[in-house]
Amino acid sequence: MANKSYNIYIVGLGGQGVLTIGDLISDVAIKKGYDVNFYPTKGMSQRGGFVQGQIRIGCPEVGPNIPPKGADLVIAMERSEALKAVRFMKPKGDFVLYGLVWAPTAVMLGKADYPSLDEVKGELEATGANVLILDPELLPEYNGLKVRENLFVLGAAMARSGLKDILSVEDIARGIKETWPKGAEENLFAFECGYKAAQS
Asked: Ranges for the Pyruvate/ketoisovalerate oxidoreductase catalytic domain (predicted)?
């Protein structure tokens, strides 16, 4: 195992598989021999509630919380939630945004504004990060059904971030097979489509 450390901040909504991504990355990293701290946080438990996960790989002597400007990779699964992650982004790190729009109650009632994609993009680029924005309309189908968006986004993150210097594509693929043995083909398809989408 290489002597490397890597911090990942993941944010999104309940039902998007945010913590599943965290569990998958953490399990794979542990099997590769890394010290791993994974600190998940849930807001409201129902679908649509705030969810975040902080993963610290190769940092055995630190706590679970990533400091401001300390994340090498940020994965945001919803447009407005991405703004909550801005303070964690390390300059010249990688920010992957899945541009889903999930308007909170205050927005639907007209009591708050929802940020435009240009506004969010501007905030992300101001951190000095390498920004990749994925259009939810590009989420592929497998046998007529949309694939897991979390694995699609993870595939894109692997293609465009330094995570691939810590864990290989083969490592993650193996982890997917072990986590979903009955749905391995479908979930590998989602992961591979995300990887290809980030390269196009």
From this structure: 14-195
